[in-house]
Design goal:
7-stranded parallel β-barrel; 8 helices; two-stranded antiparallel sheet; about 40% helix; single chain
Length: about 260
């Protein structure tokens, strides 16, 4: 059985250090790279691309609302044309830099509030799916499993990779527990690795209540910004490998080839 580990990277900003990025790129298979709209800059993008290339990590654009002041976490109501422009512009920024190193952006994963809103709102999810299909019908679209984004992507015939979150707890409806609640995050590496292995093996979300929701899982998202995130990431990777799972970059998975 194949699985992917992805991580949001290059998010240099007043909110987020990138000191763990080089180490995380030794662990993950695919990088979601900030394109400068919520975090990051050209130099950071170049660094992540160079290390990714050396490590065989596939490159993804991580487009956001143009809101560095709030790290892309503030909800905004934009027109479908404005949303499309956000996706096109940020993909093109990253793709242009990637091509300097003879690399290509092979997946897209929206960031922050844009992602959270599209998970709940089919109309916004459809706007994103249509924009991505127009941009590049062969690009892999990385979406939270069970979300409206998955529904819209399937309706539009996109190549979809469905992800779960390694370090987050889930509500009974399959949504992530809000970060404003005390039990939103899983910070114990031991708990995180068991949480992930169980979900991947069973192809089901583990809700905090104990409820399981069957779903498709192609990828596991780890975060690099939490205390102890490196230990958690290593623990999750080693546990998946030890249990017979084959780790692959998104663009090398059998599902897309």
């Amino acid at each position: 059985m194949e699985i992917n580990i992805n991580c949001d990277l290059g998010e240099k900003s007043k909110f987020h250090s990138i000191k763990n990025d080089p180490e995380l790129l030794n662990i993950v298979n695919s990088a979601n790279i900030a394109c400068g709209y919520h975090a990051g800059d050209e130099k950071t993008m170049e660094t992540v691309i160079q290390i990714s290339k050396k490590n065989g990590v596939s490159l993804g654009a991580h487009p956001s609302f143009n809101d560095p002041e709030n790290f892309g976490r503030k909800r905004m109501n934009l027109s479908s044309l404005e949303i499309k422009k956000l996706i096109f512009d940020q993909y093109e920024i990253l793709q242009k830099i990637a091509q300097k190193y003879n690399e290509n952006v092979t997946h897209i994963k929206p960031h922050g509030a844009l992602n959270n809103m599209a998970c709940e709102d089919l109309e916004l999810a459809t706007t994103l799916a249509v924009a991505i299909k127009e941009l590049n019908k062969d690009i892999i679209y990385l979406v939270p499993t069970g979300s409206q984004m998955e529904v819209a992507a399937k309706k539009n015939g996109l190549k979809i990779a469905c992800e779960i979150f390694a370090d987050r707890n889930y509500e009974d409806n399959g949504n992530l527990i809000s970060r404003s609640k005390p039990n939103a995050l899983i910070t114990d590496p031991e708990l995180a690795k068991n949480h992930v292995l169980s979900m991947v093996k069973n192809q089901a979300i583990n809700c905090l209540s104990g409820k399981q929701i069957p779903c498709e899982i192609d990828s596991v998202c780890i975060h690099g910004d939490n205390e102890g995130s490196l230990a958690t990431a290593k623990s999750i990777r080693d546990n998946l490998v030890d249990n017979g799972l084959e780790l692959k970059p998104l663009n090398k998975m059998d599902k897309f080839n």
